[in-house]
Amino acid sequence: MPEVDRVAANRAAIAARRARADLKQRLRSGEVSPLRVLEQSLVPGTPAATLRITDFLLSFPAIGATKLVRLLETLDISDKKRLGGLGKLQRERLEGFVRDRLGAVPQGERPPLTVLAGPTAVGKGTVAAYIRDHYPEVRLSVSATTRPPRPGEVEGQHYFFVDDEGFDRMLAADELLEWATVHNKYRYGTPRGPVLAAGEANELMLLEIDLQGARQVRASMPEARLVFLAPPSWDELVNRLVGRGTEDEEERTRRLETAKVELASAEEFDEIIVNDEVPRAALRLVELMRG
Ligand SMILES: Nc1ncnc2c1ncn2[C@@H]1O[C@H](COP(=O)(O)OP(=O)(O)OP(=O)(O)O)[C@@H](O)[C@H]1O
Ligand SMILES: Nc1nc2c(ncn2[C@@H]2O[C@H](COP(=O)(O)O)[C@@H](O)[C@H]2O)c(=O)[nH]1
């Protein structure tokens, strides 16, 4: 290729990359609607048409790397695709997904933040994980904690694992919406940024935290909805704690002491859901969140 053509081609490629980056930014900030981008992507050569499906989906605030993989599988779209190269059926599925998400929360109405609390081993984590896997419209807050990871726990997915100095730094920088020392042992806190971002984006946001944290959220965000997850019985709660097998006898005793106090506080909450079966409890919670 003659030098002059190569220079022109380079310039065009740089300009196209810039236009795509600009579009990604506007998608993320909500300045441009994803439906509009899908529509524009039908025109070959536009920034929308050359936008990668991965970048498009990652612009939704609640979609991260893990959800992205699942979502692409559900939509049956390769991660190599660009919007302009989607087949008819792929485009229809993608558009359906976008419409569902936009329809889940009416624009202009800010859904209240939902806090799920309850005694140890009642199943908060299990119900939250079920919601993460089955209700992609719900965004889950990832807490920071000074507790060491349990086997299988993933940094950034289950918790942000930090040492005491790291936690102190987050506190000093006012990065936590609430925090507490739970079961008199480790500190746990909710990063403020993602909660605010979810509010801005009209996203359903769930915090799975302890009673002290729930009270702090109520104080700072009175519009938050507090949901108490209750066990079917005390014996079942003890069975779940023992059955989980992640705490030694001393830690179990400590947690059950806290649990008695927490059970007595159920009336402070806006709603009580009994976790008899996980899918049922999860559905009830999501229905509450959807209003
Ligand atoms: N509905 C249910 N029926 C039977 N077992 C359940 C149910 N929900 C959760 N479990 C089991 O109970 C145990 C405790 O659940 P989980 O760890 O989710 O509790 P948690 O409330 O998050 O506890 P913690 O506050 O201590 O972190 C787990 O072994 C889980 O599999
Ligand atoms: N106040 C907060 N409590 C939190 C937060 N993240 C989790 N938790 C609660 O801690 C206990 C113990 O959790 P585990 O994972 O060590 O078993 C449990 O009750 C959680 O709900 C938080 O950010 N703030």
From TrEMBL:
One of its GO terms (molecular function) is GMP kinase activity. It is an enzyme of class 2 (transferase). SMART domains: GuKc. It is found in: Cytoplasm. Its EC number is 2.7.4.8. Residues 111-290 form the Guanylate kinase-like domain. Keywords: ATP-binding, Cytoplasm, Kinase, Nucleotide-binding, Transferase. GO terms for cellular component: cytosol. It catalyses: GMP + ATP = GDP + ADP. ATP binds at residues 118-125. InterPro entries: GK/Ca_channel_bsu, Guanylate_kin-like_dom, Guanylate_kinase, Guanylate_kinase_CS, IHF-like_H2TH, IHF_actinobact, P-loop_NTPase. It comes from the Bacteria. Belongs to the guanylate kinase family. Essential for recycling GMP and indirectly, cGMP. This is Guanylate kinase. The gene is gmk.
